[in-house]
Here is the input.
Amino acid sequence: MQENPKILLQQHWGHQDFRGSQDNIITALLAQKDVIALLPTGGGKSICYQIPALAQEGICIVVSPLIALIQDQINNLKEKGVKCAALIGGMSFEELDHTLDNCIYGGYKFLYLSPERLQQSLVQERIAQMQVNLIAVDEAHCISEWGQDFRPAYLKCNVLRQLHPITPIIALTATATPKVVNDITNHLELRNVSIFKDSFARKNIAFHVLEAEDKFFQLKHLLTITTGSAIVYTRTRKSTLEISNYLKMQGIASEFFHGGLSQSDKTKKLKHFLQNDIRVMVATNAFGMGVDKPDVRLVIHYQIPDSLENYFQEAGRAGRDGNPAAAYILTSEDAISRTKNQFLTNLPEVDFLKLLFRKLCSFLLIAYGEGSGQTYGLDLNAFCEQYQLRPGKVYAGLQMLDQNSVLLLSQNYKVKTSIQFICTKERVFQWLDNHPSLTNVVQSILRTYGGIFEYETTINPQLISKKSEAVLPKVMDTLKKLAQDQIITYTAAQEDLSLQFLVPREDDLTINTFAKKIKQLNATKTYKLQQMLAYLEQQKICRQSYVLDYFGEKKVTPCGTCDVCRQQNKTVTSLKRQIYSILKKQALTSRELVGELNATQSEILLELQQLLEDGYVTLQPDNRYGVYEQKKKS
Here is the structure.
């Protein structure tokens, strides 16, 4: 018996009604039809498969390319009391076997897995035994060589159609051109597919390309004239720290975020941002997926993005509450030239990938014919320094290996702790007699790890903390004290990337299997960058219309708020004249202006934003807007 979708929406999500095409998508899936859902960033894609799955008996299989996204979805569902599971890297056979059994017999509603994990025979055998009510392929653009983040393993997702021929499939994406949509339909073997496309237009976001020779100055200026939360995107980890420190020096509450942070640091920084303890998050593109903050008023790209797909998705994190917001790209002739050179320099060609794979296996001590199924931590900077390789090109190469199912790449910071006892057991006991308060920690180590006197052994400090009933800082202090007194050797090595090898080491043969595709993939990446640069350089077409045309939306009404539209239409609106006239008499807040004018706060905020940018009004310390005396109304 089917449950009512709207009741499920209210019960689990607290929303009173669906938005956009959600209702129609859910209705089509419950009618057992295949669906392609093209919804913008923040458009509520997950609800489109989660509600029909909850409404029916059985389990939903969800294919997703990102571990972080899978973990975020799992956490959200568990908070709602929904039983769900994920097949992620590093699972033992016993864990995998137990999880799959739970999905068959345990009343679980969702099973999340990567396209690579889907190719395992054991996984396919167990999925065939499950009562599958729906198949969801998230980030479905990855199935196309013309989509960003192409992953060949996605091409094999049609195995789900073979395992459950009559189960409906939904493919979801926020960035798909018509060519990509056609590839999704063909590769997933969708039948009589219903395509639902909500406009990607974000009418409340004003898109700007800003010439900025002094980026720090422009960054401060934009943050000064804009109220509310902001995200600043930059390419490198180093620059996130530099920019964040600069903003702090300017009195702007800021934090930095990148994939090299520990999970605890990421969680803490995200919490501060969501609670408005900090105003600005300076981040690489590692920040954003699963971040649900509706009131971001400003997104600034400090450096040029590598594709319109990535740019529009990241810029779309502004203004999810529907109120006015702005998105800026800071650029210059020098920045464009530098981007081209860096991009071409970092494109990994076949010979480089072969070199990278050999060096990687040597660095991780993977023997020929081994490595498949194993997960390794990697300190990217240490690896690049040892072999004198450029980090940017190495990371691009790792992404290429990920896209071609050689390995599964994820950003996962941790410290690998290794120790070895280098004295006799009698010496250890003597030491413990002199340090009785540390006995529980040391004895827990000795009981947990065999051979620790003979070999350097990787230990888990959190496990020792739990077994010894000692807080983690005490465990770490004990290790340092043992090393200081020459009882043990102690190494704490940083790992900021996690690599799960999907194939055995075969050196050049590993790369030769997809060597012919690399030229095409590099050509696609080059094309996407060219389209991004064309967007920056053109001055005739509305910014939003230009991007929407790229995604197949034609005859879009110009937004009227981007830098191109405003340049072409310099007339001052009646509302803007009224606001300026009132502020000439006295400084007011936006809420006070609502009481003076026949307009909504959103409409007033949009006009105030433009007046601020044009230098006609200023935002005072008490959040009141006043008029610059030296400016005159145009």
About this structure: The first strand starts at residue 35 and ends at 38. Residues 423-486 form one domain. Confidence is low (pLDDT under 50) at residues 630-634.
